[in-house]
Amino acid sequence: MLTVNELGYWYDQQVNSLFENVNLSFAAGESYAIVGQSGTGKTTFLLLIAGLDKPKAGTIELAGQSIAKIGLTAYR
Ligand SMILES: Nc1ncnc2c1ncn2[C@@H]1O[C@H](COP(=O)(O)OP(=O)(O)OP(=O)(O)O)[C@@H](O)[C@H]1O
Ligand SMILES: [Mg+2]
Predict the structure, then answer these.
(1) Which residue positions in the chain have pLDDT lower than 50?
(2) For position 30, what pLDDT does the model report?
(3) What pLDDT does residue 29 have?
(4) Is residue 2 part of a domain?
(5) Which atom of ligand 1 is nearest to the CA of 38?
(6) Is 41 within a domain?
(7) Ligand 1, from 18, 35, 47: best to mutate by most atoms within 8 Å of Cβ?
(8) What is the domain range of residue 75?
């Protein structure tokens, strides 16, 4: 299970955050759709859960372990 907890991201400043307090879980072998208007942060969200960028707030966990702790290179 891949879990995001209180995930938040912004490019310039927090007042312009793309999203905050996102809590979602993704089960292995399942398919999911990330849906939203252009510019709402779908690609940014995918970059975060792929370990290609770091969250500004919150944590991402794989099987209960923070990917920051796993190390992004190992996680990828
Ligand atoms: N590297 C960056 N630096 C600054 N702002 C960025 C950067 N990448 C994306 N943005 C801005 O962040 C917002 C979200 O971008 P993102 O690409 O995540 O949206 P999206 O939902 O994937 O859009 P689309 O449906 O068009 O693919 C947009 O306003 C975009 O201009
Ligand atoms: Mg996109």
Answers:
(1) none
(2) 98
(3) 97
(4) yes
(5) 25
(6) no
(7) 18
(8) 1-27+51-76
